[in-house]
What we know:
Elements lengths: L4 E3 L5 H8 L6 E2 L10 E4 L7 H7 L5 E4 L9 H6 L3 E4 L5 H16 L2 H8 L18 E5 L3 H13 L3 E5 L5 H5 L3 E3 L3 H7 L2 E4 L13 H6 L5 E4 L8 H10 L4 E4 L19 E3 L8 H19 L16 H6 L13
Parallel strand pairs: 1-2, 1-3, 3-4, 4-5, 6-7, 6-9, 7-8, 9-10, 10-11, 11-12
Helix pairs in contact: 4-6
Amino acid sequence: MKPRVWVDRPLTSEALDHLETMIEGIVSNDAADLPGVDAVIIGSGVSADAAFMDQAGPTLKAIVRTGIGVDNIDIPTATERGILVVHTPDAPTESTAEHAVAMLLVLAKRIAGGDMSLRGKEMARSRLLGTEVRNRVLGVVGLGRIGRRVAEICAQGLKMRVVAYDPYLESDSAAALGVEMVDNLDALLERADFVTLHSPLTAETRHLIGEQELRRMKQGAYLINVSRGPVVDEAALARVMESGHLAGAALDVFEPEPPAPNNPLFRLSNVVVTPHIAAYTDRSEQGKWEGATQQMLQVLRGERPPFLVNPEAWPGRAQLISQSPQPRGRGSREQ
């Protein structure tokens, strides 16, 4: 039998050719083709829960996530079943960091408001008064790959003062970036002129930024979220924005996605929104796809992939895979 791979989206001809040069079997985005697959490659739009794994069946060896977040995958269930969960955390870093910085500048320079003003939306000139960012304080919540890159761009390029909060990172690791670590989230919120969120979505970070945290931020501060929608309590953010406490907010992610058309944040001219496209760039997409397929092939060959989310599932898995069909050269596809 040939290894079979299920992909959650129609593939471009380039991506399909890339996959076909390395593996024989089915490439499909039809749920009816899930039973009997050896691996699946998914983005954020598929919930890989127990039911999904049941449908795939006992042949499923790997769930490969194109991107960083794995909150749409039931990792404990996958681990219990010996299914390896892999992601591609390096690929979206630069694009997502650039998007966060772009949103910061769009807010500070009132670019969205200026655009609307020239397109006929009546707006008082006083509402277009921007903020110069040099020497302002940027607060980075979550100093992982993306947070570090945002800190680097803003500290070295924009000459901002950067403070960061990350309970899993030692202060020494941030010093080389010119970043000052703070002991708690409240300390960051009280000091920052701009707060940018780069936390994964976990039980601890769900609604990490609620009404209490938003009102703890400085009067006239800005909030940027390119992490996960549920990290921010959107209803609370709408209330705080309507009260005038914050000068602006920029969101690339929402709860739920897609957001409801009547989301109250959409009515506010000082809220900038994008449809979860921070990592949707040419190089990021190429990097995510290449990283996903390479690691999937490693799993199917019985090799340990570099970005294994649940290493506790690895013992014994290599032996099981070695008894399964191995990926070979170019083959035909079924659709």
